[in-house]
Write a structure and sequence with these properties.
The chain contains eleven helices and eleven strands. By secondary structure, it is of the alpha/beta class. The protein folds into two domains: 207 residues, P-loop containing nucleotide triphosphate hydrolases (Rossmann fold); 62 residues, Alpha-Beta Plaits (2-Layer Sandwich), CATH 3.30.70.20. Strand 6 and strand 7 form a beta hairpin.
Amino acid sequence: MKEIVVISGKGGTGKTSLTASFAELAGENVVVADCDVDAADMHLLLKPDFAKSEDFYSGYTAKIIQDECIQCGKCAEVCRFNAIPVVREKYVVDPIACEGCGYCARVCPTDAIEMNDAYSGKLYVSETKAGSPMVHARLGIGADNSGKLVTKVKTEAKEIAVKKNKDFIIVDGSPGIGCPVVSSLSGADFVVLVTEPSVSGFHDLKRVYELLKTFRLKAGCIINKSDLNFEITNEIKTFLEEENIIHLADLPYDESFTKAMTNGKTIVEFDNGELKEKIENIWKDISNN
């Protein structure tokens, strides 16, 4: 079983569109893991059935038991997050602002504050329109610990892949270099970097590759919209050569990507020309690396 993680240093590079296309090409021989839990949108292209769902809890949230509260205000005094305002002459906890540290509960003289498991989002196990299993999630509004939710998604995907004897796990990682990205990269066999020839795109490519080097992961790179700025495209190619990153392909700017998304399709379903052929060749190279 081979785990392929697709990431980008910034949003808007076409990462999810390409990942969904790879999943479509792999068909039933893959488990898809959408680890971009902060802004999950792969379901728009792969049409999962949301057959199974479960609540995900991580961390804690304080709750004041009003019948036992003497309104002394000590909890509000020690809260560094200003999460305990007075509402209608009573101290209450704002669950969005609460960080779950538990300091308020420790100083309460009447033990009127309890720490409850914090709802952080939902986990889904689905089947896509291509017949492949898909594990995906949605982080709750204002919820933290997205890295832990990513870990849960990946763990579930691996269990399904082993149980159903799949050859590939394809992971759509979060953009950037934060905790969700680190969780996405854990256990990867090959990493696909998707970038674009812009100043910010090149800068963030270099940032995310610095992260990859700490994990000593093998990587390849797709330069999407490569014809928008040939000067930066050439700079990226030089960087790839210097860092021994496999240059997988250059893809031209093509409005077919947008049209495909508007129609709820991957680009390999929507386009039957040169663009589809290029992405098919990229998938062959990735699956063989």
